[in-house]
Amino acid sequence: MANHSSRGYAVIGLGTFGVSLCDELGEKGGDVLAIDNQAALVERVKDTVSQSIVMDSTDEDAMGQVPFDNVETAVVAIGDNVEASILTTAILKKLGIPRIVARAITDLHQEVLRQVGADEIINLEVDEGVRMAQRLISPDILDHIPISENISLAEVAVPREFVEKTLKQLDVRRRMRVSIVAIRRTELAVDEEGNTLRSERMVFPEADQALSEGDVVLVVGENEDLSAFKELSQ
Q: Which of 10, 38, 188, 212 has the lowest CB atom count within 10 Å?
């Protein structure tokens, strides 16, 4: 297993996505600083990260007191508060963090994050046409967004044997050393005229969430482990 202890990470926003990042980076030996304004969320990760802080990441004075000296990559994982994610990204840029990865929920949000200093964008909610085309043309290519040198966020079709099983039953974190942070699910409906309507939505799953046929899971893990997980879907 690779040792990432020489690299420091900050994860700001401890929802499902942020917690999964903390768990994965911590397990792989990363020096992780976790920040959220809710004490209960910070409590969830305190045993898996190097340091956890309860604070408002939009408070520039408070952020200036945070020990970011060893942080090479900061991930702004805030998803439900667009203003907070933008302000936090701008503050991190002003503080001189070398690499900022930010989560966006709309195209406009993504554009603004880039303008205020985000080096990379993770867009979980908005369907990216280029990525969709790549999957259709070359379905065997692992679509992934690097988080660090050896850890990525990947989109993988749900393996057939995982259908109708819950995340708790699958226990992929223990068995395969990866974490499922979101599910891209296609849903069909019929309008008043009998036409079939197709739509996609993002599901941020709890442990009792069952997977369905046709789901695409967003998985965080070390690249070698992600490749092994991908092979299950072929």
A: 188
Do 109 and 151 fall into the same domain?
no
Kindly state whether residue 129 falls inside one of the protein's structural domains: no
Task: Give the range of the structural domain holding residue 83, as residue numbers without chain letter.
Answer: 8-123
Distance CA 37, CA 8 (A): 21
Token pair, residue 142, equals 């692992």
CA–CA gap between residue 37 and residue 88 (Å, rounded): 12
